[in-house]
Amino acid sequence: MTIYTGPVFEMARRQFNLTADHLEIPEDERARLLYPKRAVTVSVPIHMDDGRTEVFQGYRVQHHLTLGPTKGGTRFSANLEVGEVAALAIWMSWKCALAGLPYGGAKGGVACDPPRLSRRELEAVSRRYMQEMIPFVSPQTDVMAPDMGTDEQVMAWFMDTYSMHEGHSVNEIVTGKPVALGGTEGRREATGRGVAHLVGRACSLLEIKPQDCTAVIQGFGNVGSVTTYTLARQYGVKIVGISDHTAAIHDASGLPLEAIEAHMRRHGVLAGFTSQMGIDPHQLLLQPCDILAPCAVERVIDETNAGRLRCRILAEGANGPTTPAADEILAQRQDEVFVIPDILCNSGGVIVSYFEWVQDLQRLFWSETEVNEKLYQLLDQAFTRVVGYAGSNGVSMRNAAMAIGVQKVRAGKTLRGLFP
């Protein structure tokens, strides 16, 4: 029996078991590698604006502390549950190990719907959640970051709440906070820039010119929007399709990005931009393109559509966008579809979060140019390792990335012993 259930956790478990089979990890080692070290569930009571007291459920899962403190985002989402949080923490462990960061994976959040909360209510949820987490987090134990439904302001409230408890400013307790409070230049754009950079590396490997490519981006939040604009403006890629939770649009001749950017600044969502370019969101994934970047939520590519994807490069900006059943199909299409797996493709965010943590600990800050140079260096190293492992072992890019990450965590646990 386990408290970790649900389709997202089962997906993480299946991916791990496939990797463990490839690495021939004995059965008696697997549970310790897979299951989290700690899961915390808290009640988050706040006074609502109408005078009611409402209690939200909050979670934090710390996968392992073998290589250093845990690291991971904090998600505010109406349907959040502990199995999903655990899966995201597990993926973060492999991601950090693959990137060479001295972290274990963590994830947390509150089951709430941010658009339905006033700013005062959102602040109350944020501060009370952090207050409940204080016994379980510290700059040396678990460092939080933003995720879906949270942002720089929420991180500022987290930092202030923890700092007031400690009696002095503790900038390094969270990353992804405002630059004025010890955040780093380039953190907000890091994940999307990383996706675009790795697409560029894939194009080079496949001998494709980016300026001759078209792209479809699913999800137009922070990651998807930065990926879109970076691919278009830095690499010359033609963007032919985008979507968010309100609308999907497609035009094979290319989308008017400046007009879309202006619309997003005014309205915050794609809905209302056009009625002529609209397309069913599920069909958007199946449109012909050179680059398909799912940058929204989990499990959008499954056994029903994996065989019908018409892209050359699948760049996974989201966590867990491709199910194991879809992976089996894509493994048969490796000559057609080059997959940049999520734990590599979207690792730019945690890499620059690591840079922020290091800068806060040193009280010495870098320019955005320095941050980006260091980001691209680590991404290039990880990409080269994954491509090399996949080629020499005859496995998919996902299996290669997972194997490298799992091997590093396993080696650390073997060297340290039973407890961490």
Explain the overall architecture.
- This protein starts with 6 loop residues before the first helix and ends with a helix.
- β6, α7 and β7 (238-243) form a beta-alpha-beta unit.
- The longest helix is centred in the last third of the chain and has 26 residues, at 368-393.
- It is of the alpha/beta class and 420 residues long.
- It is globular, with a radius of gyration of 21 Å.
- α1 (7-23) crosses α14 (397-416), α6 (190-206) crosses α12 (348-362) and α6 (190-206) packs across α13.
- The strands form two sheets. It has a six-stranded mixed β-sheet with strand order 8-7-6-9-10-11. It has a five-stranded mixed β-sheet with strand order 1-2-4-3-5, with helices on both faces.
- The protein is built from 14 helices and eleven strands.
- The mean pLDDT is 95.
- It has two domains: 7-181, 3-Layer(aba) Sandwich (Rossmann fold), CATH 3.40.50.10860; 190-345, Rossmann fold (3-Layer(aba) Sandwich), CATH 3.40.50.
Architecture per CATH nomenclature, i.e. the level-2 architecture of the largest domain: 3-Layer(aba) Sandwich
Poorly predicted sequence stretches spanning 5 or more consecutive residues: none
Structural class: alpha/beta
Q: State the CATH topology of the largest domain.
A: Rossmann fold
Radius of gyration in whole Å, from Cα? 21 Å
The major sheet is characterized as:
6 strands, mixed
Strand proportion, as a percent range, falls in: 15-25%
Q: Approximately how much helix is present in the residues?
A: 40-55%
**Quick one: CATH superfamily of the largest domain?**
Leucine Dehydrogenase, chain A, domain 1
As laid out across the biggest beta sheet, the strand order is 8-7-6-9-10-11
By DSSP (H or I, 4+ residues per run), the number of helices equals 14
The CATH class of the largest domain: Alpha Beta
Count of β-strands: 11
First-last Cα distance: 22 Å
Principal-axes geometry comes out as globular
Element order, helices and strands?
HHEEEHEHEHHEHEEHHEEHEHHHH
